[in-house]
Amino acid sequence: MTRTQATVDSVLTLLREEPQHEGQLEHLAREARELPVGELVYLVETRPATEAALLFRVLPKSIALTVFEALPAHHQAELISGLRTQQVADIIGDLDPDDRASLFDELPASVAERLMHGLDADERAMTTSVLGYPRDSIGRYMSPEVLSLRPEWTVAEALAHVRTHAAEPETIYLLPVIDATRSLEGVVGLRRLLLVDPEARVGDIAHEAVHALATDDREDAARRFFSAKLLAMPIVDAENRLVGILTVDDAVAIIEEENTEDSARTSGSEPLPRAYLSTSIFGIVRSRIVWLLVLAISAILTVQVLEIFEDRLDQVVVLALFIPLLTGTGGNTGNQAATTVTRALAVDEVRVRDLPRVVWRELRVGATLGLVLGVLGFVVASLVYGLSIGTVMGLTLMSICTMAAIVGGLMPLVAKRIGADPAVFSNPFISTFCDATGLIIYFSIATAVLGL
Amino acid sequence: MTRTQATVDSVLTLLREEPQHEGQLEHLAREARELPVGELVYLVETRPATEAALLFRVLPKSIALTVFEALPAHHQAELISGLRTQQVADIIGDLDPDDRASLFDELPASVAERLMHGLDADERAMTTSVLGYPRDSIGRYMSPEVLSLRPEWTVAEALAHVRTHAAEPETIYLLPVIDATRSLEGVVGLRRLLLVDPEARVGDIAHEAVHALATDDREDAARRFFSAKLLAMPIVDAENRLVGILTVDDAVAIIEEENTEDSARTSGSEPLPRAYLSTSIFGIVRSRIVWLLVLAISAILTVQVLEIFEDRLDQVVVLALFIPLLTGTGGNTGNQAATTVTRALAVDEVRVRDLPRVVWRELRVGATLGLVLGVLGFVVASLVYGLSIGTVMGLTLMSICTMAAIVGGLMPLVAKRIGADPAVFSNPFISTFCDATGLIIYFSIATAVLGL
């Protein structure tokens, strides 16, 4: 066991004893201070709320702030209710305005309002401006505190300005250039300012800014951020006036949240609002039950399909043996296609207009996969159950794979086209759809081949 | 149609005509220059190799480099074979050493060697140093060109040093502090240098560095990078000597690749080496066929389970009707649990040692889900097929959901424990496993309740 692991265990034991005396708390504080920030975040995220708050209270102020900033907003809001008023005020005051806005969003309105009153006028104004943008818009994630330059300044003047104001904004490494009406004219990197002639004009060395509208979708803006390999991105309003700046940490947080959401939805559940181990059992059930019910009810379709073919089943009961294998293979083939296309959509490698190309590709891929599995299925089933069952299996596998690959490739595009999340519409629905369609194909082929 | 979209269409038409004359190429070049970089990347990524190379050849040098840098290494390697020698030499010379190393890795050894000879001695040494680290280690992604400071320097001296050397390294915003033996002592942000007293010593204002070993796993290092909200991270060798620096764009690329890999594996396929639309049909088939075969062969288990119960099926053929619904529900419940735990493992919200907690949570979640579905299944099936079939359905749904949730939660942890990728071991295997186990549960309950 590493030293860190031993300290984690000791902190865990101390937390579970719910220490009250000064001495015990002292001991806990000493042990906690030994831990790297990553371990502290893990502990706060995965322990029940009371233990998390206890641990948090014994941390030194600066470490507490770092740990707090690393938590998702929903979790921050919960933690706050377990802390002393003074510690809350300290933390809220030190947060960046965009992080503060996300937190206020999760707090009950009355608590948010009380905390808002504790802020000074400037901080309050910035928090309010961020909260004014719609949920899921990039405006919610930007920092309204931006250090900007004027095009008519010399580089020397610009550098002096940066040095004077370097302490406040979230970043000073990318500097938007704005005119007298705050209209965005371009950007200059701090590195460029250090490299060029101090007498040059800022307007002459600025280059065009990759930027976003404050009302743009957060995922689109974050993806643009990363494809352009930025360190920061200016955010403007509808009149091209600079209203804030998006920094790397916020763009990363957005992408990670979107990835978690996609991965949950692909398997037919909603993303959890907080860490798995500290979500209540009821919270986890809630994230899964709706989809599970919808899918189970859709699966009644398969019962109805089988009812139609019940007399054939009664005649040749051996047909029932292959049902899970065939539906399973159809589901797997469909999910492979759906996952590939969903991910390609997310990273902008496929667009809705590529639909015909996707269908044509999946048709060929599905037919090839079906050919391989069909030949294999024909050989194995013929050897064990005779030539006619073998023929049914071979033809069915071939058809099901082709059908499933096309459906799997198509569904995410259709979802995107009608404005739904491609991830929601994909895997579990495809499985259910392919189950029902696959059974129809199976029994139609069986009826024809076996002459039922 | 937007103006950009119209230009994309016009470029597509021009590319398909495979222009040869100067005039046509001129026209293509003019149109291509109108497009934003993001659209150019999309075109190069999604068109066949010959068209991509043609488009690339008409781009101005600086834009060509930007587009080239945005492509994955595998795709870069392919593109290179279609370009003129001079353009290749220009691009290779301008790439960062870490990106160059990734590209060389994908090229045939003879081509890589020839290109390596075209580099000057410094660039060649840096590329070789990066190529010396194992695949998937963070050393492969770092930039060996680092601007570092010495602790005994004053801040004024440090700033002068930065200004003189600002042009070469990938970043100047985080500056590692090293002693005479290149041993890493700490880091200073450029912002801090601009803020403090110019007479202060660098050693006094430096703080402890969040760093990584060059041989560390790339995903672990990239996740540490983002939890610490860094702009850059020093990379050291086993003796704590500074060997490179990891920048944001590289950390983002690693996380995005890992996410694509996880999403592919979760659905039982291997990630594609390049963009979906430009991968060959054979390449897509190859990414799916192995898993599909493995899963189909595992699914033979379900045939064998059903054979055991064939006489019961023959007696009560109505039992066959519910097979796809029951196996489907089991698979869905298992996948929900597996996806949640796989993602929680990826973002370090769950660790292998949490196994007992995960099992206990999934037991309760699964039982609750099973209770809801079981009651519903009992009521519906009783109304349609009578009380005894209703009882079988209710009890089976309850048991299958509980079993599937536990298996789904357990599998990713077991995979991680034995050193496999949790994503590989999870969803498709869970479906197959739950199918077979679910059928045993189903027919055992049916045998008992119906007295078969």
UniProtKB/TrEMBL annotation, chains A, B:
<feature type="domain" description="CBS">
    <location>
        <begin position="142"/>
        <end position="203"/>
    </location>
</feature>
<keyword id="KW-0812">Transmembrane</keyword>
<dbReference type="Pfam" id="PF03448">
    <property type="entry name" value="MgtE_N"/>
</dbReference>
<dbReference type="InterPro" id="IPR006668">
    <property type="entry name" value="Mg_transptr_MgtE_intracell_dom"/>
</dbReference>
<dbReference type="Pfam" id="PF01769">
    <property type="entry name" value="MgtE"/>
</dbReference>
<keyword id="KW-0460">Magnesium</keyword>
<dbReference type="InterPro" id="IPR038076">
    <property type="entry name" value="MgtE_N_sf"/>
</dbReference>
<dbReference type="GO" id="GO:0005886">
    <property type="term" value="C:plasma membrane"/>
</dbReference>
<dbReference type="InterPro" id="IPR036739">
    <property type="entry name" value="SLC41_membr_dom_sf"/>
</dbReference>
<dbReference type="InterPro" id="IPR000644">
    <property type="entry name" value="CBS_dom"/>
</dbReference>
<feature type="transmembrane region" description="Helical">
    <location>
        <begin position="392"/>
        <end position="415"/>
    </location>
</feature>
<dbReference type="InterPro" id="IPR006667">
    <property type="entry name" value="SLC41_membr_dom"/>
</dbReference>
<feature type="transmembrane region" description="Helical">
    <location>
        <begin position="363"/>
        <end position="386"/>
    </location>
</feature>
<keyword id="KW-0479">Metal-binding</keyword>
<keyword id="KW-0129">CBS domain</keyword>
<comment type="function">
    <text>Acts as a magnesium transporter.</text>
</comment>
<dbReference type="GO" id="GO:0046872">
    <property type="term" value="F:metal ion binding"/>
</dbReference>
<protein>
    <recommendedName>
        <fullName>Magnesium transporter MgtE</fullName>
    </recommendedName>
</protein>
<dbReference type="InterPro" id="IPR006669">
    <property type="entry name" value="MgtE_transporter"/>
</dbReference>
<feature type="domain" description="CBS">
    <location>
        <begin position="205"/>
        <end position="261"/>
    </location>
</feature>
<dbReference type="InterPro" id="IPR046342">
    <property type="entry name" value="CBS_dom_sf"/>
</dbReference>
<dbReference type="Pfam" id="PF00571">
    <property type="entry name" value="CBS"/>
</dbReference>
<keyword id="KW-0813">Transport</keyword>
<comment type="similarity">
    <text>Belongs to the SLC41A transporter family.</text>
</comment>
<feature type="transmembrane region" description="Helical">
    <location>
        <begin position="427"/>
        <end position="450"/>
    </location>
</feature>
<comment type="subunit">
    <text>Homodimer.</text>
</comment>
<keyword id="KW-0472">Membrane</keyword>
<feature type="transmembrane region" description="Helical">
    <location>
        <begin position="289"/>
        <end position="309"/>
    </location>
</feature>
<keyword id="KW-1133">Transmembrane helix</keyword>
<keyword id="KW-1003">Cell membrane</keyword>
<dbReference type="GO" id="GO:0015095">
    <property type="term" value="F:magnesium ion transmembrane transporter activity"/>
</dbReference>
